Each structure stands twice: as structure tokens, then as C-alpha cells.
Amino acid sequence: MDIEFNKNEDSLKQLVFQLKSKLKKVYLGGGEKRIAKEHEKGKLTARERIDYLIDEGSEFLEVGAFAGEGMYPEVGGCPSGGVVTGIGYIKGRQCVIVANDATVKAGAWFPITAKKNLRAQEISIENKLPIVYLVDSAGVFLPMQNEIFPDKEHFGRMFRNNAVMSSMGIVQIAAIMGSCVAGGAYLPIMSDEALIVEGTGSVFLGGSYLVKSAIGETIDNETLGGATTHCEISGVTDYKCKDDKEALDHIRTIFDKLGENPKAGFSRVEPAAPKLDEQEIYGILPADRAKPYDMMDIIHRLVDNSEFEPYKELYGQSLICGLGRIDGWAVGIVANQRKIVKSKKGEMQMGGVIYSDSADKAARFIMNCNQKKIPLVFLQDVSGFMVGSKAEHGGIIKDGAKMVNAMANSVVPKFTIIVGNSYGAGNYAMCGKAYDPRLIYSWPTAQLAVMSGAAAAKTLLQIQVSALKAKGEEITPEAEQELLERITAKYNEELSPYYAAARLWVDGIIDPLETRKVISMGIEAANHAPIEKPYNVGVIQT
């Protein structure tokens, strides 16, 4: 192996080590003291509940592990958004699981908690997957109620979704394993079946303090809305369980008897590992993001048997399009080529840039995949579309619009992996979060923004210097350099994949070696939802 390969490998492995260290901290939720307090009450933590609930030895694909990362420092933060969500297997059935983390502010709902809960429901709806709610929440985090309560994308949307999901035939099971108050009380009770744990579970519209202040009645929470009350007096809940484990066992029993639903019918054969060593991805991806590399070297280490059928291989070479299989599933891959290529017309094309010919090719390929019912995988390392008079006169906007149209209207499921850069309209054309990928994950090498840090910083510097000059103020070269460094530092922080993951612009950050698992579990989930509408691109730019 050459020196460059070893340097790249060291750099990416260091980023993966940092990722795993950050995840370990996230998995502690509110910290070890808070975990001990839950155990003292005879309760399992959110993550322990999920581990017990899912099939032994099965995979759990976490969604939004870094939600809330670095946010709300004024109130001590909100690790993982105070809720654990993801896709798991119960009695061999794939499902979405949502578990409130009572170690984080007693499971209270922050603005990011609302966004994460709605994302979990979206995954359930899009893929027609059953969903399990493990409820243990003190309700809205009151100091931020104005950011959580009344709007369309706030918490009320969850209960609207409960109703809509029920009408769609999506199975919803809820276990009340701790507090469940106020509007939040509707979530388990609008589910198909609700279980409650004796002694720790309680559900009511208003707790004992509110009841006392509102109507003067003195009553304790257990009598007001505990397991005995709701299983024997009100009939609000369906099953009374003596502890967390019994409740989780009962959910497994329910899943054991679920009927089968129609499938989408995506092609799958016996899975095979790539023939080329996946570990070599670490050394192939340059540590210096400005350096070119051949994206085909990455693709051959992601697809089964390292077999890939390129589409229009010699045309529009700045985008790679083609067919392969990942863990047995047939996929259509659209990936940014990062090496410099030369067109037959003699034009040198920069890596990571989308040109007219490549956008034209990708649009046609995406339409073909929809015609053949093949899920799409986008591998992003994109700087944006080509600019300048030659590109504009050649109709780059028209060809870009055609690609965006073909991709946005896709009826086959789309999956996005951000390998490196994800800038500007390139993020859009390559199926960024705004274009409904079923799952979108990034590698630790990813950067998301409207443009690169260097380009943005220089642009912002020019604007600020011009503003100062307009006021008659001159700026020294030293002051200008200091300003540039300050702007660059702020912008670079916002480019970080952790910044994106904190805000759920991506579903998570993964080790590159987890890419095949994410795509495979994603297509398996999507296979539960038959395609119901015909592919129609409307008026397309020709």
C-alpha cells in the first residue's frame, strides 16, 4: 500500500473512532446517575427496553442518534432528543420503535423531540411498517412550549398521524411504562392496543397538582391514572403488566400473531459480500477533500460480488449510473464521479460537478429504474452544478431541472448516502433530505451546506468588507485575515455532519462499513409498501 493510502486510512479510521466515542456518550442519555435512578424504580432504560424487545442477535438500525447534539446548552442539552427511535425486528417482523428516554429531562419533549418523533412516524407511514411506542414522558418541556405546541410540524401532528396511520391499516402498539400526561396521553390511547405497567405507568390528561389547582380535588397520581384505574375502572388501557419485561413480552406475543401484508416485490437474490475488500474504502477516500478519486473504487466495495453494470458509461461521466445488488437487493446507483474526466468533445470535467450531459444521463437512468421497479441509491460527493457562460449557454439549468424532476417524482424508494461534499443544488439533485429519501445517512467525512467553507467564507468576507467601505471604514489586511478566520470557523462548524445530524437533516452518521446494512434494511422496509401510483414526471424540460 502506498503512503497516500495509509494516510487516508489513518484519517478515516480516526473519524470513525471519534464517531463511536460520541455514540457511546449518546447511549448514556442523561448519564449514569439518571440510569441508576430508573433502575431503582424497577424500570429499564429506553435502550434496555429496545434491546429486550427486539429479536436476540438481530440488527437495530437507529434513526436520529445525534438528534439534539450540541443544542439547548442553556438547559443542559437534550441527548438524542430524549427519545430513541429506529427500525428493528420483533418475532421476525420489521417495525419502527419509539422509546422515550426518561433519563433525559424525565423524557420531556423538546422541539427536536417533536421532529424526531414525526420522522419515526414518517418512516412507518412510507414503508407501512408496524410501530411500537414505549411511552415514558413528562410531556412538553414547558419553557419551550411555544416552539413545540401549536404548529403543523409540532407535537399535535403526532396524534393526527396516529389517526391517519390507523386508517391506513398500520399496526400501532403502545406500552405506558412511566409518565404519560396531557396531550401526550392521546398517543397510546389512539394506538390499536395499549399496555400499562403496574406501579410505574400512569396516564391522565391532568396530573394531581393540576387537578388540585383546577378543581380543588386532592388525589394521588396512581389512583388518578394508574394501571388499576385504567384496566379495571375506566377501561382506557387493554393490558395490565407487572413490570417492564412482562409488558415487552406481551408486545412480542402480539407481533407473533400479525397477519402478512402485500409486498412491493423488489428483486432480491442470495446476498453476497463484495469480492473486493470493503475495508479498503478507508484508504481510497482521500483525507484531503479537494483531492480527486475514482468513485468506482468505492462502488465496487459496496456491491455484491463487486459486480456493477454501468449505464451510458462513456457519456456524462461526471455522474456514474448503473445497476448492481446490495445484500441481494437490486439497486440503481447514481454517484458523483470525483476524478477529472475528459468528454469525447475534448472538455475536461471536474470531479464532483454535475454537467449538462451527466444530468441528462441521470434523468434517463432514474426514469428507467422507475419503469423497472428498482430502488435508487444516491452516493453524494457533489460540489454542485457547473457554472459559467459555457454551461449556462448549454442549458445546464434545463438539464438540471430534468434530473431533479425525474428524481423528485420517483415512485421507487430512494436511499441517500453522503460520502463527502453535499453542496448547494447538488444536494437537491442527488436526493437530499428535501426529496424524501426513505433513509439518508452520512459518513463522518460528509459536509452539508449551500457551498464549501472556503467559497462561502470568501463570499461573506467580500460582503462584510464592502459594507465597511460603504461606511467609509478601511480594513487592514491583518483585520481582514482575522475576520476571514472567524467567518471560516463558524461556517466550518455548520458544515459538520454532526451539525446536520443534530437537526435531523440526515438520519445518522455511520461507519462506511455499515452502508450495506443501512441500504439493505431500508429496502427491506420499503418492500412492505407496494407502489400505488404510476410514475409521472409531468412537464419535463427537454
Compact summary:
The protein is built from 20 helices and 19 strands.
Description:
Residues 273-533 form the CoA carboxyltransferase C-terminal domain. It comes from Pontibacter burrus. This is Acyl-CoA carboxylase subunit beta. With 542 residues, the chain is of the alpha/beta class. The chain has three domains: 31-256, 2-enoyl-CoA Hydratase, Chain A, domain 1; 278-446 and 506-528, 2-enoyl-CoA Hydratase, Chain A, domain 1 (Alpha-Beta Complex); 452-495. Helices cover 39% and strands 18% of the residues. The protein has 20 helices and 19 strands. It has helices at 3-27, 32-40, 46-53, 111-127, 156-167, 186-189, 208-215, 221-225, 227-233, 244-256, 281-284, 295-299, 356-372, 389-393, 396-408, 424-429, 453-470, 477-495, 497-502, 515-526, and strands at 61-63, 83-90, 93-100, 131-137, 172-180, 193-197, 239-241, 308-310, 319-326, 329-336, 341-342, 348-349, 353-354, 376-382, 384-385, 414-423, 439-442, 447-449, 508-509. Strands 8, 9, 10, 14, 16, 17, 18 and 19 form an eight-stranded mixed β-sheet that branches. A seven-stranded mixed β-sheet has the order 1-2-3-4-5-6-7, sandwiched between helices. Strand 9 and strand 10 form a beta hairpin. Helix 13 packs parallel to helix 15 (396-408). The longest helix has 25 residues, at 3-27. The protein is globular, with a radius of gyration of 25 Å.
